[in-house]
Amino acid sequence: MRLLTIHDVDDVRLDDYARPEPGPRDVVIRMKAVGICGSDLSYIKNGGIPGPGKPTPLGHEGAGELMFVGSEVTGVAVGQPVIVNPMMTPSYIGSGGPEGAFTEELLVREARLGASLLPIPEGISYEIAAMCEPLAVALHGVNRAQAKAGDRIVIYGCGPIGLGMILWAVDRGCKDVIALDLAEERLERARALGAHTINPATENAAARIKAIHGTEKVFGREKAGTDAFIDAAGAPSILGDVVMLAKTHARHVITAAYLKPIELPAGPMLTTEMTITTAVGYPSEMPDVIAAMPRLKDKIASLISHTLPFDRVLEGLEIAATSQSAKVMIGFDA
Predict the structure, then answer these.
(1) Does residue 287 belong to any structural domain of this protein?
(2) Same domain assignment for residues 167 and 215
(3) Is residue 293 part of a domain?
């Protein structure tokens, strides 16, 4: 067996691996599909979690088939297709613990149905099932924005998470969803999902947002008619841009990871009473994503730009770092 592991800054390897023996409260999953996440790329640049010093296994967007079920694990059986919820595992699989999903056989400790293990609906492929984790992140961001039918939404960033947010916002009935990105390939995917698109490098983003969403006057200043903004891009200028655009009681959700402080122009916020908050993970969204998969599976499939075998996972990491990619999926033959 092999396991994708970070050894140091920008040093990631596909190592030989001897899986630990499972206990009575554990399961082992024969992995079928695992997605490459932007956080995987960040962990590699960082040299591991929390940093260099110990090997860090990677992979947290996984789906596969149960090949071992401990005697004390109830509700699941060998041969059953399942999705892993890494946030509900003791070691936060793929995010600093001893296990990572980029391996042929994944040990899930203290496994529980409905928590760390979620059944895959009939007719859903393993690739679509492995999209559950990033789609749950995206759905949580949309939920934190309190987006509802008829709301006008702006989403910054059209990577896999931003595209997922567009999917959920459009599906929810939000009006005139706008997506911003610098890469034409990603903007094309956003348009295919039903969004208006803006490239800030070639267009006046503020003027275009106002043209699409309309304007309102707040204390004599022209503001965009946008109800909620979501930052899935992580550009330091976004916060200031949103504050200057925001109307009374507009909402802004930061889902991107900022490693350095960013400037907050608090003055203009005083007159709009806008709200700024954050979103991380998916406290309760995974079951909702799974329930929607049969209905949205074709749109979900459109978010996968590349599929490579496990032998080429290092190549997959390089592809995932380019703007030509959306979700890069790693498949397993066995």
Answers:
(1) no
(2) yes
(3) no
- The pLDDT tens digits of the residues spanning 184-208 come to 999 999 999 999 999 999 999 999 9
Cα–Cα distance, 32 to 59 (Å, whole number): 13
Euclidean distance between the first and final Cα of the chain, in Å? 12
Domain containing 142 — which CATH number? 3.40.50.720
Is residue 157 predicted with pLDDT exceeding 70? yes
Handedness of CA 221, 225, 227, 230 (dihedral sign): negative
Please tell me the predicted confidence (pLDDT) of residue 334: 57
Q: Is the model's pLDDT at 151 over the cut of 60?
A: yes
Chain position carrying tokens 């529980």:
112
Answer whether residue 70 is part of any domain. Answer: yes
Distance CA 103, CA 40 (A): 15
- How far apart are alpha carbons 234 and 260 in whole angstroms? 11
Do 70 and 160 lie in a common domain? Answer: no
Q: Mapping DSSP to helix (H, G, I), strand (E, B) and coil, where does residue 160 land? A: helix
Q: Which two tokens stand for residue 36?
A: 């490459």
Give percent above pLDDT 90 in the chain: 95
List of residues 6+ apart from 20 with CB closer than 8 A: 98, 107
- For the record, the structure tokens of 299 come out as 């749109």
